[in-house]
Automatic annotation (TrEMBL):
Chain ranges of the ABC transporter domain: 5-255
Protein name as annotated: Peptide/nickel transport system ATP-binding protein/oligopeptide transport system ATP-binding protein
Cross-referenced NCBIfam families: oligo_HPY, PRK11308.1
Protein family per UniProt: Belongs to the ABC transporter superfamily.
Amino acid sequence: MGDLVVVENLKKHFPVNRTLLGKVLSTVQAVDDVSFTIREGETLGLVGESGCGKTTVGRLVLRLIEPTSGKIQFAGTDLAQVPPRELRRLRHQMQIIFQDPYSSLNPRMTVGQIVAEPLIRHGLARGAECRAKVADILAMVGLDPSYVRRYPHEFSGGQRQRIGIARALATRPRLIICDEPVSALDVSIQSQVLNLLKDLQQEFGLTYLFIAHGLNVVKHVSDRVGVMYLGKMVELADGDELYNHPLHPYTQALLSAIPEPDPTAKRERIILTGDVPSPINPPSGCRFHTRCPKVMDICKRQEPVFQADQSNHWVACHLIHK
Ligand code: SF4
């Protein structure tokens, strides 16, 4: 399968401090020089702490916000160059599932209206055909089609997230950005929703960018995994390779925090000290150097280059690329 999404040197700097004349005094470097690809039909997991830029990356890929610079290609089309009409056509091929199933559904709309809304907006169906499609989609996500007249508050968190998934599926997209889709759910419900997403991917050949806080959630759904820290991609590799041979000290620390199911297995817990620095004035050199247990002098002066080895394992760390 070829690449469905190609992201190159993507930056998003939000101005946060302006003079009265509009001159920008400082910016939040939410995403800074991030590059990756997503192959058609795969799941790319994207993890990192709050504020690392992963959600901003998802919104940039959908063009919900404009990049400061860099390239985003979808199905061979450069989204920055595409005229608005063509962008609307591409939009129904790209959808999003939001983190919070409680706030992401309009409480004044029925389930039927919520799922039908993208079909009507993109001119894909109306009337009886639209109602039939909505019933089909609800059944696909494991909800009774008779729920169409009910309102979101009548459902549990897991059911509401199924409604959110149905809304994202309605236009039969090729790409779905899953923005922490299970983090607001009970642990007992999380695996049901993850299994549903996997089944739908198989059935419809969907491509996912799966954003999550921790590596434990993306482990079961991702083909490849990228790790972000303070606006930068610091490591990217096949899932098994990343979990078995993490190279970046930050990834090693995140992995060490995952509970080990085998009580005889010994894994050293790496505790990171200090807070994540401000993205308004990030540290010089390697942005992780203020918390890295393996920091060297060069790390404070020189930014490590994000490079791959022969097995396509990408990492930005002076320990690896000397
Ligand atoms: Fe740590 Fe230096 Fe590698 Fe950054 S470049 S992760 S500070 S060892």
